[in-house]
Design goal:
Layout lengths: L3 E4 L13 E3 L4 E5 L7 E2 L10 E6 L2 E6 L6 E4 L7 E4 L6 E3 L3 E8 L2 E8 L28 H15 L9 H8 L8 H14 L18 H11 L21
Parallel strand pairs: 3-4
Antiparallel strand pairs: 1-2, 1-11, 3-5, 5-6, 6-9, 7-8, 7-10, 10-11
Helix pairs in contact: 1-2, 1-3, 1-4, 2-3, 3-4
Length: about 250
């Protein structure tokens, strides 16, 4: 079973249909400027003759930087700026992202190799342990209005780009009005404040210290929700439900 998919930097011939190289666990892919010494030939004078090596390791992959001077950056295009730097000569650096972009500095250009790790391995069975069940890390009821507010805040980044601007409070109210006719700026802001307390981004009113309010509240909520999968793309169905589906 293939576990790693590599998409080389596009050329004029394959910009519309980029090539894909699939690696099974244990297989390696070397890349660089030398046409005879590498599995993937990159035709750029700024790329080392033997630039690097990608190795499939089950459900993830590792990167070796075989250049002498260039640091490679592995970016997470689906994240919020997460990246891993692989120094010159570094071998077997593990990459934690499911979808990655290896950026190669090349004499004034930045070349990118895209790498997917689509294979997922999961634990099977519960193990038959006795005792009380583990308390959930975040207790959210997907039928409540506060969850619809959270879903509306996350929607641009789930449907668009990782750095898409967040909707304003008024835009959230407009988005929810088909399923929540009474949605208003005041009611949406109340639910945002409630979420900040419920998700422990700020203390409740009984224990809050006097001082400035939480800055970037919407950004903090969305960052937490997307980081821990509290809202997934299929949860956006609550925004298109029939009136009365979302409750108080």
């Amino acid at each position: 079973m293939y576990s790693i998919i590599v998409v080389p930097p596009p050329t004029t011939e394959d910009e519309r249909n980029p090539a894909q190289i699939r690696l099974a666990p244990g297989e390696r892919l070397t890349f660089g400027r030398s046409e005879t010494d590498n599995d993937l030939h990159i035709t750029h004078d700024g790329v080392s003759r033997r630039a690097g090596e990608i190795t499939a390791q089950g459900a993830f992959w590792i990167l070796s930087n075989l250049s002498r001077e260039q640091t490679y950056v592995v970016e997470n295009p689906e994240g919020a700026g997460e990246h891993v730097k692989v120094a010159p000569g570094r071998l077997d650096a593990p990459v934690p992202f499911e979808f990655s972009r290896i950026v190669l500095p090349a004499a004034g250009d930045l070349l990118a190799l895209q790498v997917w790790a689509p294979r997922h391995d999961y634990l099977t069975g519960t193990g038959g342990l006795d005792g009380a069940t583990t308390a959930p890390a975040f207790s959210l009821d997907r039928t409540k209005r506060y969850f619809a507010v959270l879903a509306a805040l996350c929607e641009p980044r789930l449907r668009g780009t990782p750095h898409a601007p967040l909707p304003t409070v008024d835009q959230v109210a407009d988005r929810l009005r088909p399923t929540w006719p009474a949605a208003s700026r005041t009611s949406v802001q109340w639910n945002i404040d409630y979420l900040a307390v419920k998700l422990r981004l700020k203390p409740g009113p009984d224990s809050a210290d006097t001082g400035p309010r939480l800055n970037g509240k919407k950004e903090s909520l969305v960052s937490l929700a997307l980081r821990f999968d509290l809202v997934r793309e299929d949860d956006l169905a609550v925004l298109a439900g029939s009136p009365g589906r979302v409750t108080r």
